[in-house]
Amino acid sequence: TQHSPPLGFGGSPWLENPNILTCYVDKFWPPVLSITWLKNGQEVTGGVLETVFYPRDDNTFRKFSYLPFIPARGEYYDCRVKIEGLPTTFSKHWGENL
């Protein structure tokens, strides 16, 4: 059976100060996936940075995505991951709308 790969967030931003949210996906195969950032439910189209697929010793992969932003009260962010071959989209949520 296929299951959700480890998916996580990094970053402890201070309100109104520049920061970077980090979304990572770990232990997936094949190395085909898309990472989408959402701000208040709307897709973020600019400023996103991504790494290449990093191979692991167990023949799976790891990938990171970074979103530079300035957090403001009332905003929330989601990192949405779609892995090729899996029917489900996985998400992590950050922000006030928890």
TrEMBL record:
<dbReference type="InterPro" id="IPR036179">
    <property type="entry name" value="Ig-like_dom_sf"/>
</dbReference>
<dbReference type="InterPro" id="IPR003597">
    <property type="entry name" value="Ig_C1-set"/>
</dbReference>
<dbReference type="InterPro" id="IPR013783">
    <property type="entry name" value="Ig-like_fold"/>
</dbReference>
<dbReference type="InterPro" id="IPR050160">
    <property type="entry name" value="MHC/Immunoglobulin"/>
</dbReference>
<protein>
    <recommendedName>
        <fullName>Ig-like domain-containing protein</fullName>
    </recommendedName>
</protein>
<dbReference type="InterPro" id="IPR007110">
    <property type="entry name" value="Ig-like_dom"/>
</dbReference>
<feature type="domain" description="Ig-like">
    <location>
        <begin position="21"/>
        <end position="91"/>
    </location>
</feature>
<dbReference type="Pfam" id="PF07654">
    <property type="entry name" value="C1-set"/>
</dbReference>
